[in-house]
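Input/output pair, single chain:
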Amino acid sequence: MNRADYFLIGGMDAPFNLPIHKRALELGGVLCVICLGLSLVALGWGALTLPFSDVMKALFGAGPEQAQVVVTQWRLPRITAALILGAALGVSGAIFQSLLRNPLGSPDVVGFNTGAYSGALLVIAVFHGGYYTTAAGALLGGLTTALLVYALAWRKGRAQGFRLIIVGIAVSALLNALNTWMMISASLESAMSAALWGAGSLNGLTWSKASPSLIFCLLAIAAVVPLQRRLRLLAMGDDAAQALGVPVNRSRLTLMILAVSLTAAATAATGPISFIALAAPQITRRLLAADGVSLLNSAWMGALLLLAADQIAHHLFAPSQLPVGVVTICVGGVYLAWLLINDSQRKTS
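Output:
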């Protein structure tokens, strides 16, 4: 790496040092500006359209009271949740794709989203839980599924990346069957609640509902930052990372728990939202023309993708609103097909 191409946070011999590529920093700045601009547009756009000046006044507690309520109590929680939860999904996808060294190594492909859905379904169908207990069930379901996949993929002292993907897909298939059985066995009211939650939506999200997951995601992202160096070394392969002094199994397990926690927390708040974790790291990798994925830019890209998808879901068929999960599945399905075809062509060329 050319020293002129990056900034170094910390010293070369310090316990903590973080090289940041200038091009990655520039891309992060561009994505930040786009997110900010789209957020301001979204704050003023809706059934009650507000001019930019009223939006800014409302954000600072001035202007008409009606505009303040619309901006700060109705639209701002939804937009903030889209940004933070999208960033959480982007970081989660970047961690998994680095650890598994596979662009398909995303938590929604490996099945952790399905596990979170199973946990939520269990609470809704069996215990008739409310919003917070459903969210807790989703969090526990995602973490339990991750531990199960990790344990089943363990072989000869370590969990291999490709084996994790295969085991994850198999566990996801089993959980899908379990989810179907719970849906058809549940009462009509519970089944409808579960179906609405399972579509993945930011509709009706308030500060009180969103705050626990948002705070949890911010803390988990902060916990990932000091582990970036280990993640980069693990992406080079277990043997290379071990030779450079990285405790491979402990570091991989810690990073996986953080990544699963991010996915499960996002799922707990909104229901399963697919393909953000899969697409965000790969889009940034291609924009940077880099071999590895960038956590910071994956976070910004995830935030931008989820916010844009939510605005499409919100306004495309206004006054009706689609669940954002429907939009991400439609767009993500096309992206996944392109990724598979592109990867196949690259291997055969």
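The longest helix spans residues 65-100. The mean pLDDT is 82.
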